[in-house]
Amino acid sequence: MKRMQLVWTVVVGGSLSLTLPVFAQHGHGMGPGLGHSSGNHAMSSSTRSQQNMTQKLTANKPLADKISKLTGMSATAACQGFKNLGQCVAAAHVAKNLNIQGGFLALKDKMLGLSPDGTSSTTSKPMSLGKAIQNLDPTVSSKTEVAKAKKQADQDIKNSSGNS
Questions:
Q1: Residues 142-152: pLDDT tens digits?
Q2: CB within 10 Å: which end of the chain, N or C, has fewer?
Q3: Nearest-CA neighbor of 148 among 101, 93, 100, 111?
């Protein structure tokens, strides 16, 4: 706990002002998930990751616009659930490059282990970009497509980083 010092100051005209001790309260009485209840001492890493990704997309409009153009949806919605921006952008490129049936959402669902309605699936496990490509289009070389998409994603991120 932080404690501000007791401070006496003389205000113009000779009157006294008193600043009482103040105790900083961090996370106490803030409701579920915000304080120290239920053993939840910190925000989950996935929540922090999503907030960080949203901040990056908000700060980097050129990249957000590129993701929206590739996926046909808002960048924050498209990237929700991915571990990082590179993974999201690469998936967006694969979906566009291969014109995958079901589009970006089908690929995202495979990668995140979601059912087609976007909810967690008990039957599907998250898979790599390469495995998701193989699953959705077994006729292409997933290794080649992953390399191509990662290169495109890296270039998009590099090109947009100076514009934010």
A1: 999 999 999 99
A2: N
A3: 93
pLDDT digits (tens, 9 = 90+) for 21-59: 433 433 433 333 333 334 444 555 656 666 788 999 999
Q: pTM of the full predicted structure?
A: 0.67
Domain co-membership, 84 together with 141: yes
114: nearest Cα among 139, 82, 92:
82
Q: Look at residue 18 and give its three-state secondary structure.
A: strand
Q: The domain containing residue 28 runs over which residues?
A: 1-42
Is the domain of 89 the same as that of 130? Answer: yes
Q: How far is the C-alpha of 85 from the C-alpha of 60, rounded, in Å?
A: 11
Residues 25 and 49 in one domain: no
User: Tokens at residue 94, please?
Assistant: 């694969």
Length of the chain: 164
**Residue listed under structure tokens 């998250």:** 126
Residue 70 and residue 14 in one domain? no
pLDDT band at 161 (very low <50, low <70, confident <90, very high): confident
